[in-house]
Amino acid sequence: MKNKMPNKASQRDSQTATLCLPLLAALGIHGGKMHSASNKYLLAAAICCFAAALAHLGCIVFGGDWYRFFGAGEQMARMAEQGLWYPTIVTSVIVMVLLVWALYGLSGAGAIKRLPLTKLALILIASIFLIRGVSFVGLMPMFPENSLTFWLISSGICLFIGGLFALGSWQQWSVLGVKNA
């Protein structure tokens, strides 16, 4: 008969899981499994927001070259290279907003616990993305350093993500109105 003594790796995994339980419960993940998510559009929108947040975080970490690559303008790139706080603060705010929006996408999809005001948040998020996507012509003069490529690509991305949020919210509309759903 074999002695079933737990090894160090399984003890460490058990300790890690125990430490993470409050976070997992807050996100609505129980028993190692997420609630089944029924809305692929909101899941895709959340993934897009997470990816956009990572790209913006990359600008903070990797500096001027990343700001240039993503078309944020030479002025932002130079300020980042000089170590000025402005690009980091602006980009950090964008990262935080995108992460919150991703969480609302997951919440609306049913992948995590319902967040407060999910229905309203999803409407606002979809609207902001869609308005940003179509209003670039009016915004361009306010940011002359940004390239036309930046405006076309970022506006297309915003329209795409806004469309995902809008379609997903429309599909979930009846579920989003139910309390504790």
Short description:
The protein is built from eight helices and two strands.
Report on this structure:
The protein has one domain. The protein is built from 8 helices and 2 strands. It has a two-stranded antiparallel sheet. β1 and β2 form a beta hairpin. The chain starts with 7 loop residues before the first helix and ends in a 5-residue tail after the last helix. 26% of the residues are buried. About 4% of the residues have low confidence.
Number of helices: 8
Q: In the residues, how many domains can be counted?
A: 1
Oligomer: single chain
Task: List segments where confidence is low: pLDDT < 50 over at least 5 consecutive residues.
Answer: 29-36
Class of secondary structure makeup: mainly alpha
Mean pLDDT: 84
Which radius of gyration do the C-alpha atoms yield? 21 Å
Proportion of beta-strand residues: under 5%
The termini sit apart by 49 Å
What helical percentage do the residues reach? over 70%
- β-strand number: 2
Q: Order of SSEs, N→C? A: HEEHHHHHHH
Strand line-up across the major sheet? 1-2
Question: What would the principal axes of the Cα set say about the shape?
Answer: elongated
For the biggest sheet, the summary is:
2 strands, antiparallel
